Amino acid sequence: MEKSPLSPPGYCLYKGTTRDRRLLVDFLERTYHSLFPELCDFPHLEQTVESYFSWRSPLWWVVPETTQGNSNHNDHDSPFFPREDPLGLMAQINPTIGPADGFNQTNSAEKITRPQPIAGLWLGNAIDQVTGDRHGHIFMLYVEPAHRRRGIATSLMEQAQQWGQQRGDRLIALQVFSHNQGAMKLYEKFGFTPHALVMQKSLI
User: Where is the N-acetyltransferase domain positioned along the sequence (predicted)?
Assistant: First the structure.
């Protein structure tokens, strides 16, 4: 996995894979919990991911840089989950691999682990119902509270814009809840302007 040149200082921005489905659901749940803390569960989000997540709707993750530097990730693996060998299978395949290689079922301290994402971006496609043109859509942008105000959201927005420009999109859109003033200020800073208004009325 290549580190994006848009990575914020002290962090690494990586493109995710379709194997990150469970992690995406988790980040969507974090997003909605932060906006609606009075609600305890969002079971429908799994169906949302099932319906819309594919190779056409890419992910980007942000992880803290480690003091050891950033290892090269195997393209067939998601870089955001612990890589372990609890059954000692590596030693069975190659007897020359021993405890010093980090694959020893009796020494958990030597298991190879990777930092977990603290921010994520999910992009997809939408069709402008006025012009019929396809354009990019930001489905999710989330940063853990402890890592906010460090330029991470800005880097993710820049990544979203770059993705759209590279595809030849003429615009990119998103939806934001009206009470999420912090997010609205960020989007306005990037030149987003209101295009439509969703109105609701309770029937209960």
Answer: 30-204
